[in-house]
Specification:
The structure holds two protein chains of two kinds. Chain A is mainly beta. Chain A contains one helix and six strands; from the N terminus they run βββαβββ. Chain A has a four-stranded antiparallel beta sheet with strand order 3-4-5-6, with no helix packed on it. By secondary structure, chain B is α+β, with helices and mostly antiparallel strands. Chain B folds into two domains: 16-32 and 119-195, Gyrase A, domain 2; 35-115, Heterotetrameric sarcosine oxidase (Alpha-Beta Plaits, 2-Layer Sandwich). Chain B is 20% helix and 33% strand. Chain B contains five helices and ten strands, in the order H-E-E-H-E-E-E-H-E-E-H-E-E-E-H. A five-stranded antiparallel beta sheet of chain B has the order 1-7-10-9-8. Chain B has a five-stranded antiparallel beta sheet with strand order 3-4-5-2-6, covered by helices on one side. In chain B, strand 4 (73-81) and strand 5 form a beta hairpin. In chain B, helix 2 runs antiparallel to helix 3. The chains are: A mainly beta, B alpha+beta. The A-B interface holds A 1, 8-10, 12-13, 15-16, 61-65 and B 62-63, 80-82, 84, 139, 153-156, 161. The structure holds zinc ion. The site of zinc ion (ZN) has 7 residues of chain A, from loops.
Amino acid sequence: MQLIPCPWCGPREEVEFHYGGQAHVDYPAEPAALSDEEWAKFVFFRDNPRGPFAERWSHAAGCRRWFNAVRDTRSYELLAVYRPGQERPVTT
Amino acid sequence: MTADITTRRTPLDGWTSRFAELAPAVRLTERPFRSQLTLRLRDAGRAAAVSRVLGVDLPETPCTFNRGAGPHGPVEVAWLGPDEYLVLAQPGLQRTLESALREAIGGTQGGAVVDVSAQRTTLALSGPRARDLLAHGCAIDLHPSVSPTGTCVQTLLAQTGIILLVRDADPAEFLLLVRASFARYLAAWLVDAGAEYREEPV
Ligand SMILES: [Zn+2]
């Protein structure tokens, strides 16, 4: 089984984690100003890259904290994990 | 017939004799009704005041716990998250500790103190085969070199969420905290997984 390194708890089995979709999707600064189309884009539209992808993960069965990870969608390899509020690390 | 709702019962009421069958390779007992409080600390500057109430410092390292004794007797304080701790104390102290801790963190502005004593029950697990027994259903490496005394992990044991405290790495002595509604399932699993060590001479 793949191990995912929680930024606090260290490497744990994948079954302890919960997937949270694309990271760094900011809530609109002025929600009332958005058109229907812009709302739809915010709620439903996500990137789907082939390669490194910044995602949200939660250590659901452990410390129950959310964090971000860069995962290569081709190999499932986790290239980096980082805490909320931290910059996305440069990965190759 | 009316149900008796005045007598307090633990989730593992009636399991003592089945646990005893695992001895001497594995010693398993329930420690019922322990006081348990979740502490969320917004202001880290209040940690010293909390330490004074408990007589134990808050653990700074993730996945560890501190133990000691203070004004409220023996306590264990476990790290559950970057600002979250679990305080374990003798039965019957939850009200006293709740108000003492709330005062220490500076009231409701300083964070949150919640009595969660009824949420989980505690199992004490020791004996020469205790570590082997856990290995049947827990992915955490519990070898003393990896999980020394003072380790506290939240993880899965036989698909059930547990908090596991390594009270002593060698000879192995563990505390397992399990949700009340999962306690009988976990007890049945432990008794079953330990069956193969029953007849073993020690
Ligand atoms: Zn974690």
